[in-house]
């Protein structure tokens, strides 16, 4: 029987959440949370992993927001007239 945390499974390739997390660069941290949860069966024991993953995701979101802001054309107030 395959481990539910075996990242070579075909199921993960089609999972949109897995794909989204992979694009952030935070996937290994996400897997660390899953492994901790599987081991401890208590999310409170995994707060260090959760915080590290949260920090990674926030950094990705901040960088993405800045990237989008740089590519946004300047708004013109007269366009609504």
From TrEMBL:
<dbReference type="InterPro" id="IPR009069">
    <property type="entry name" value="Cys_alpha_HP_mot_SF"/>
</dbReference>
<dbReference type="GO" id="GO:0005758">
    <property type="term" value="C:mitochondrial intermembrane space"/>
</dbReference>
<feature type="region of interest" description="Disordered">
    <location>
        <begin position="1"/>
        <end position="21"/>
    </location>
</feature>
<feature type="compositionally biased region" description="Basic and acidic residues">
    <location>
        <begin position="1"/>
        <end position="11"/>
    </location>
</feature>
<dbReference type="GO" id="GO:0033617">
    <property type="term" value="P:mitochondrial respiratory chain complex IV assembly"/>
</dbReference>
<dbReference type="InterPro" id="IPR039870">
    <property type="entry name" value="Coa4-like"/>
</dbReference>
<protein>
    <submittedName>
        <fullName>Cytochrome c oxidase assembly factor 4 homolog, mitochondrial</fullName>
    </submittedName>
</protein>
């Amino acid at each position: 029987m395959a481990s539910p945390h075996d990242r070579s499974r075909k199921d993960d390739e089609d999972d949109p959440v897995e794909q989204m997390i992979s694009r952030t660069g935070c996937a290994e941290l996400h897997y660390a949370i899953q492994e901790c949860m599987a081991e401890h069966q208590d999310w409170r024991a995994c707060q260090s992993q959760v915080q590290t993953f949260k920090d990674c995701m926030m950094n990705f979101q901040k960088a993405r927001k800045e990237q989008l802001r740089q590519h946004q054309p300047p708004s013109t107030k007269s366009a609504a007239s």
